[in-house]
Amino acid sequence: MIPAKLQRLEEKLQTWRIEAVALNAGASLTYLTGLDFHLMERPVVLLHRVGSTPLLILPELEAAKLDHLDYPIDTCFYSDNPDQWPQVFKQAIASLHLLETQIGIEPGQLRLLEYHLLRTVLSESAFTDGSGILAALRSIKDAEELALLEKAVAIAERALQATLLQARVGISEYEFASELVMQLLRHGSETNLPFTPIVASGPNGATPHARPGERRLTSGDLLVVDWGARWHGYAADLTRTFGVGHVAQQEQEIHAIVRQANRAGRTAGRPELTCAMIDEATRSVIKEAGYGAHFTHRTGHGIGLECHESPYIHAGNQQLLQPGMTFTVEPGIYLHNQNGVRIEDDVVITESGCRSLSSFSRELIYIS
């Protein structure tokens, strides 16, 4: 019996009239099989045709990862000699009878390396964009996935709380970020963090994707901290903005506006609402306060095995929200050369509304 996720994949493939998928190492392969491989110079390819046993082509050194599989899978191992790989792919794929078929791939994930090896063998087959199928499957989280996400969020929140105990005026952004990374690992995060934490103080906070640097926390700063943890592959992605020492009235005001926008986005969500409507719920708060031009990015993005995945919460996206969808709500205001504010939570659409997976205080907490 193949995993339920592979069964659901087959149903989607039949609906889309695609006979098979070809996936390389990445989140979709992990989602479908439970196997985790990283992108490297040695290709890993999963081929699955409707009604057939999945086929995995992989290097010999990864064989031990299959020891505990509880479902049937065909495997083909190869050595470290790249000259032999085309023949190995040819022999492995022959059993699937994929000539002149429609094969779904992920254009944003499949590299030229794997594509060339597949195309050499399947010259008569049509490769088509199958990313919509995978996104439709992965965007709806089941109870087990939600539990893993909530655990990742809990780890992230405890790690930040421990980091704040060490924070003070005068330390550098880099020192804060280093302590945060250590606390994430100490509190249980997997070592492959979803991303390098963003720690941006004062004018650096006006750059949404700033990197921690040598700037030292100074009284009057706003401090943007965007961080995450990973648990059993699932990622948390959160942001809070803090005050350093004495913070001026304008900084307090824009923080309050972003907090209101964040709340509007979190409470607006429900099934059958569009992603664009969530974006509008947050954006309208900031626009009405006169800072619309300073909210320069989308409201959020899906979160799961990847930190950024479907659904994407932006204007124009008419995709309907469904129970089990998880995404971020992260409005911000960025004043060039002055400061920035972002408050980000991870949420899930329920049968009747929207529930936040994160609970860390959104108030303006001060570091002294």
TrEMBL record:
InterPro entries: Creatin/AminoP/Spt16_N, Creatinase/aminopeptidase-like, Creatinase_N, Pept_M24, Pept_M24_MAP, Peptidase_M24B. Gene3D superfamilies: Creatinase/methionine aminopeptidase superfamily (3.90.230.10), Creatinase/prolidase N-terminal domain (3.40.350.10). CDD domains: APP-like. Transmembrane segments: none annotated. Coiled coil: none annotated. It holds the Pfam family Peptidase_M24. Residues 148-351 form the Peptidase M24 domain. It comes from the Bacteria. GO terms for molecular function: aminopeptidase activity; metalloexopeptidase activity. Residues 6-140 form the Creatinase N-terminal domain. This is Xaa-Pro dipeptidase. It comes from Desulfofustis glycolicus DSM 9705.
